[in-house]
Amino acid sequence: MNLGDFSFGNLGHAYLPDKWIFRNYGGEVSRGQILSLLGPNGSGKTTLLKILLGALKPTEGTVKVNGQVAFVPQLFQVAFDYTALDMVLMGRAKNIGLFSQPTKEDEEASLRALEQVGLAEMAHRPFHEMSGGQRQLIIFARALVAEADILILDEPTSALDLKNQNAILEWIDRLARQKNLTVIFSTHHPHHAYAVADRALLMLGESNYAAGAVNDVLTESNLSKLYELPFRRVCYEYKSQSVETLIPVLRPTKTALASAESY
Amino acid sequence: MTELSKKFAQRINNFTSQIRLRLSQSQWTNPGPLAVILFLCVLASLFYGSYPVTASRTLGILINLLLPSGWLDSSALDLKEIAVITIIRPPRILVAVFSGVALGMSGTALQGMMRNPLVGPDLVGVSSGAAFGSVLGFWLGLFEKPVIILAMASIGGCCALLLTMALAKMVGGKSDGLPLILAGFFVGAFFLACVGLLLYVNNPFYPRGQRTYNIIYWLLGMFRGADSAKALVVTLTTLIGGVVLMGLRWRINLLSLGDLDAKSLGIDVSWLRWLLIITVSFMVAGQVSVSGVVAWVGLIIPHCARMLVGPDHRRLMPTSALLGGLFVLGLDNFTRTVIKGEIPVGVLSGFIGTPLICFLFWKTKTKGWNES
Predict the structure, then answer these.
(1) Which listed residue, of A121, A159, B21, B273, carries a Cα 20 to 30 Å from B289's Cα?
(2) Residue of B nearest to A46 (CA)
(3) Which residues of A201-240 are buried (b: 16+ CB within 10 A; e: fewer)?
(4) In this predicted complex, what is the ipTM?
(5) Which residues of A touch B369 (CB under 8 A)?
(6) CATH superfamily of B86-365
């Protein structure tokens, strides 16, 4: 198993006896690859991420990790008005002894990480005053300063506008391709997985899942089964390249139908 | 009316933000100036009291004490004044300062650990638990054994804190919101009822009478009658607990992010929380076993310190310690000099704390700190 590799097998978790959230799940991802986790609300995505992170012991099964893991939670509020620099500095926790305080080197490393995500000038601004996208980038900077090999993100694009969603996806891609980090992220948007992920895991039911390469797993039939909605494959051009993705066919509004008729 | 209240709240928020910004850019982030102020206040407290001793005579006595005998002519010094400056006042000043330091630091640690700026040692039941432990010790006739009283107070405080956290978790799912404050209130009320029962029930070790009266007076937060043994207890417990909390102060930043995030940063959350619970209980027990329940200090002081130096516990912890010492020393000086009847410090801190906490509570509504 190489550094940054991540695999899990026969994984199952039940908060109550015999009330399985999922069972016999398995999957793997190699260094520098991106794994996307998709499932409807209540399917156990966050539980699975907690298990992969090591914060929750699975009821059964094993998780094999080689390397340090960092976590980027869903957009969250901090109880106190820490600055962006304070937040990034916390990523150094593993390198700092129980009764020790961060050194000047730790602060410099944190500032460098903030520079990398383009927010160095905001180092002394309160974290809670920042936009959702900026906060997410600060948490990315925290993961960078932790010198992690594997990054786990819980719905990183939720509650963000389209521009910020795109920026976060670009960052996920950059971290995997340029920093050679293994990235695992959960999402509700199949086209996000299509845009950046190499592999995908679909949580279809208690012991029903589909895992593998994105093109093999993210199919119309799998996604239709997962979200109980029809999906259509569309092609578009992005920077002179032909790109394919899947979009859900949502119920059209009366206005949309009327304009279609007039067309 | 609501519009007016919002505008007023906005103005206050802007004002406090401005103050914080100015202070964060100035030397206030360094606790040095506060330490100097505290030292000067301690010196002033030596000659400030019902028995008048002038500043120059106080300094003369202190210099005479510090220099080897024979260097200065000590015949001009008054024996009564020497007794006041060297025997009577120092224990009381030490008890006041270290009680404030203990409450300020433990309040800061609790607020950070529980991610809740509305908690303090008295609000989560620690003080009541420690008071119960101490009174149980007195009830068993262990007046002359301060170490056993301290141990019982520590166990009482620790049990109360654990009960509060368990109850809040059971009711609220997570122990950092309103359920925590309510649980603290319930547990505190329970331990105070236990204290009442002990004071009511007669036993051979502890006959009712003057001692009961003294204990009730002590429970209100009283520094009168502080002696060197009491000063030693509160100084040692505060110094030991203070060293641990100063060491862990940056870790409290991590803990204040919540369990999952803190765990993901690679820290052992449960071990750290246990360490803080034991340390806080020990410090509060040291304070309560010597000077009773001094309410609100552990809640107000971290807030004031946060306004001065921001929320980073690396700066907040020493600032809270110094401000706590200053505040309680000020209250004690006020009660022993201005008010001749000596109102207990706990009562006085309640009078100051209640309007202040009402203001802070109102400020929560207007986003004085983050609502999560």
Answers:
(1) B273
(2) B260
(3) bbbbebeebbbeebeebbeeebbebbeeeebeeeeeeeee
(4) 0.82
(5) 79-81
(6) ABC transporter involved in vitamin B12 uptake, BtuC (1.10.3470.10)
